[in-house]
Write a structure and sequence with these properties.
Layout (H helix, E strand, L loop, with lengths): L2 H12 L2 H10 L6 H5 L6 H13 L3 E3 L8 E3 L1 H43 L1
Antiparallel strand pairs: 1-2
Helix pairs in contact: 1-4, 1-5
Length: 118
């Protein structure tokens, strides 16, 4: 899978509040579909559909443990999205620093003119 496709799947998965809540729950430990469905007012098949989206994005994985099929968080799945966001955060921060420097120069100029006029 290409990087841009993985990013699309990751951000599409993260766009839904139910899926983000599922990820938050899995951050505390593994859970089955039944356990994950408890706080939501939706059916287990609906939760399973959300889990498939998260699995396709590589954000969670499923283990097979006898009769249980617990899901667990895959932190590596978020790494590419986090790296992408960090890259743009750095660019925005550099732009703000240049803007701050320019504003500082512009604010300093009137005071120089006042000093020359005295």
């Amino acid at each position: 899978m290409q990087s841009s496709e993985r990013l699309n799947l990751t951000f599409a998965a993260l766009a839904d509040p139910t899926r983000r809540a599922i990820l938050a729950r899995l951050a505390t430990g593994e859970a089955t579909v039944t356990e994950l469905a408890v706080p939501f007012e939706m059916s287990q098949p609906a939760i399973s559909k959300h889990l498939k989206v998260l699995e396709r994005a590589g954000l969670i994985s499923m283990d097979i443990d006898a009769q249980r099929r617990p899901r667990r968080l895959e932190p590596e799945g978020l790494k590419e999205a986090a790296d992408w966001i960090e890259r743009y955060r750095e660019i925005f921060e550099q732009n703000y620093q240049r803007l701050d420097a320019l504003l500082g120069e512009l604010q300093a100029k009137p005071s120089r003119r006042k000093q020359k006029n005295k």
